[in-house]
Amino acid sequence: MHHIEKLDKGWSDDDKYILHVDDEKYLLRLSNLNQKNFKIREYELIQKCYESGLPVQKPIEHGEADGHYYILLEWVEGEETTIKLPELPESEQYRLGVEAGMHLWKLHQMDVQQPEEPWESKMNMKINRKISMYDACDYKFQKGHLFLEYIEGDRHLLQNRRQVLHHGDYHVGNMIIDADYSLHIIDFNRHDVGEPWEEFNRIVWSAQTSPAFASGQINGYFSDDVPEAFWRLLLLYISANMLSSLPWGVPFGQAQIEIFMEQADEIMDWYDDLRTVIPSWYRSFS
Question: pLDDT tens across 144-155, in order?
Answer without folding.
Answer: 999 999 999 999
